[in-house]
Design goal:
alpha+beta; Alpha-Beta Plaits; two-stranded antiparallel ribbon; 17 helices
Amino acid sequence: MADGSRKVPKSDDPVLPKRGLSVGGMRLRDMRSNEDELAASGEYLHDALTQHKEEGLVLAVRARWIALAVIACLLPIINFDISVFYYEALIAGFALIGWAQLRVGRVGRSRPEVLLIFADLTLMTFTFTVPNPFMGDSWPTAMQYHIGNFSYFYVLLAAATMAYSWRTLVTYGIWVAGLWMTAAVLILFLGYHAPGMTERVFEAVGRDQRILEFIDPNRVDIGDRLQEIVVFIIVCSILALNGWRTNRLLVRQAEVARERANLARHFPPNIVDEMAAQDKPLAAVRSQTVAVMFADIVGFTGLAERQSPEAIMALLRDFHAHMEGAVFDHQGTLHKFLGDGIMATFGTPEPSPDDARNALACAHDMLARMALWNETRCAEGKEPVTLSIGLHYGNVILGDIGSERLLEFAVIGDAVNVASRLEELTRELGTALVVSEALIKAIETSGDADREALLGPLAARDPMPLRGRDDPIAVWVKQP
């Protein structure tokens, strides 16, 4: 039922007055403004509203059909003659309108849907103000209007609360009021009158004016009809207020979905679930020991010079997709894409005993994925891509950095600098992977059953000097 647009819909209803109406002490214009401020969740709000509208409309139409079936069965019991088929035909019309609403209903403004709503209310007004042409005796048109059939409008209203927004419910009340009072005016001036009936009633009741007014078949009681529509508008307003509250809750849920999706861009799904269940904010600055990884494409500058911009962008997208999958598969956190490289951590936002092991397993997985990817690239006649990785295990500082307008969850500290320098060291040592001894020791002391498989491809090297550091650092490298 959605129209396919990813724009945030403002409403799923037609027209409302800009001034004068108030619900629960709040002007509709203010309610509309408050709602639009909340509706900043983009596609998540659109998806939530679409699902809410689709489910509500299906339930509303099914409820309508059940109610119409009950009424259709009840009518012959109350009055079984040929005139009942007229009302059965009208019931079929209501069922058909419901089917049409199900077909054209969607989130956002829909002219066909608005017309069907108005047709629904117009048919209801016609049913209870125009006498049945198949009835044998003629009675005044006001008599049909006199009978207390207005309550059937509440059946339509109850179904509308499941399918339409609070704006539509208020509009519902306005349209019903206009149609019902228009019917009163038409009956008053154009309806069929039987003065003889009024005279006979007058002779029967004598001079009691109140009784005469109550049972006069030619009288259109504007006061009673006005009372009916005022009560109906009050009920519509109360239901609209509740619908507005429900819509705000829906928007907030869409905000939560958007926030979870933003987290999912940085953290694996299981970590997102864990963070969502905690009250501890990411913004709390703290220090903890984590594994830090930097991965980069070797010789990317020359590669970029030999290929078109479109080819380079396609290469980077594929590269990032392969690396992202490996990081998330090993419980890592992807902090940022660095052009032709990435930065990831293992142990953020919450540390675990397997952080060092997960980081090294991820590095091996990345190299394996790159090998398979290069086989595909070579088969397509493309240049292979060489990956370099640096890993370190140490203390970092976590927290949000930036301004009030732009924040970033950052990991900073000496361990980050060391991991970056180790990645640079891969060129000098002629290897794809350089790991600090601190990370190796963390794996050895963890008692991991797979440590032999993880450490087997690595060999220890003499301590190496790193740019910007006074003391050399012991490293392990992946053997050719």
